[in-house]
Amino acid sequence: MATLFTISPLRQRLAVRASALLRDTFVCKRCLQHQAKAPPAGQTYQSLKQTPFLRAFRQPSQRQTRAQSSAPSYEPTVSSLGALGQRIALETSAKAPPKASAWPDTSSKSVAYWLLGSAASVFGIVIFGGLTRLTESGLSITEWRPVTGSFPPRNEQAWEAEFALYKLSPEFKMLNSRMDLEEFKQIYWMEWTHRLWGRVVGITFLLPTAYFIARRRVNPAMAGRLVGICGLIGFQGFLGWWMVKSGLKDDLLDTGKHPRVSQYRLAAHLGTAFIAYLAMLWNGLQILREHRLLRNPTESAKLLESLQSAQVRPFGRLVGALSILVFTTAMSGALVAGLDAGLIYNDFPWMGQGLIPPKREMLDPFYSHTSDQKDLLWRNMLENPVLVQLDHRILATTTFCAILALWGYSRTRPLPTAVRKGMLGVVHLVSLQVALGITTLWYLVPTPVAAAHQAGALALLTGVLVLGSRVWVPRRTLRLVQGAVSQAHVPMRL
């Protein structure tokens, strides 16, 4: 009996161990992996690396928790690898930032500075082109060689060959028949420098354009504009040779009997240069303006709202009309230059015995090309030096009065300080331009004053465009500022 009581505890321990062994043997491995093991008292376990892989195996999924806490069901459970994949995907998507566009919303400031520098270069070449025309150097190079023409003659034989080509031109036969080689070199260097400068403008604009677009330093709209300006520069080079070619043909000199380029082609050449310059200047100013407005979008939104008010918006429309008037006046000046119309009626405001010349001189039938003379009016307006000068005087006077009237109108409007300063600057520029124009007439078109007058036309256009950049509100700029204001008012998510 004693033996029985002695062996009984041993049997009990064996029974407990056998029960635990059977339980571990007949329970599936998946359940063993998901069983939570409580750490010993006073001790906690913490993973050295909190990776998605370890958390996937340490924290059971919702479906597995329901399977352990409820009655057995036939719903299949998610495997460990499936849970791992789901958890890694969720945590990666939560941490990864939203995918950004390859194109920026605003162009880089470096693009703006480069555009303004290119505009300054175009401004310089326009003035130098005027000097080339005034010194009658534009027809000294009688061939258009875009690549090989970049190199001047290197020896005396090459200079003689160039001079021989110039001797075949109408300008040499009619005006410069007594010119020697040294005098020819002076006008040759003027035209060669002008053409080389044009090539430099094209290269220094084309290569940076490709770089900025490839490196995504500009927004898509600006990329298209830069490509358009590149095409405009190339077209400008073609127009330059097309203009020079008109002065090398005798059949184009029947009306004036003077070796000069076509006034139409000169106006097209100069107008294209003006447009390229204004495009560079406008886009450069717009990039800087966008960056300036986005620094404080709340205040900028108020400024743009004030510029779109009923009291200010008419002023912006008038500035747009003024820019068209100034450009038209400058193109009429190109016709005056092409016809040498500044060499007649060198007085102001009189033209002969009155304010306007005699009707016979203004509407001369000589310039009509049809028997019924239906083209009498427009032919005289574009080809008769007398009427061309009168048209330019009328347009210049109208521009001067319009700017003074707009300045007076601006005094009655609630305009920002920057707009008022820009308007006053335009008044100063047009006053200087009128003084230069009258002086050019009085002194029979002296080269320095005439070149300054041409520069004044482009400077006046610049002033009007700068004024417009301060009062006009492009839709894209408005959207950028409104978007920045909306983002600034969105509460941050923790």
Distance between the termini: 75 Å
Query: What does the largest sheet look like?
Result: none
Domains, number: 2
Using only C-alpha atoms, the radius of gyration works out to: 41 Å
Mean pLDDT: 84
List the secondary-structure elements in sequence, H or E.
HHHHHHHHHHHHHHHHHHH
Structural class: mainly alpha
As a percent range, the share of helical residues equals 55-70%
The proportion of residues in beta strands is: under 5%
Per DSSP, the total helix count is 19
Number of strands: 0
Low confidence ranges: 1-6, 41-49, 69-76
Coarse morphology: flat
Provide an overview of this structure.
The N terminus is likely disordered. It contains 19 helices and no strands. Helix 12 packs antiparallel against helix 19 and helix 13 packs antiparallel against helix 16. With 494 residues, the protein is mostly helical. The longest helix has 34 residues. Helix content is 69%, strand content 0%. It has two domains: 192 residues, no CATH class; 164 residues, no CATH class.
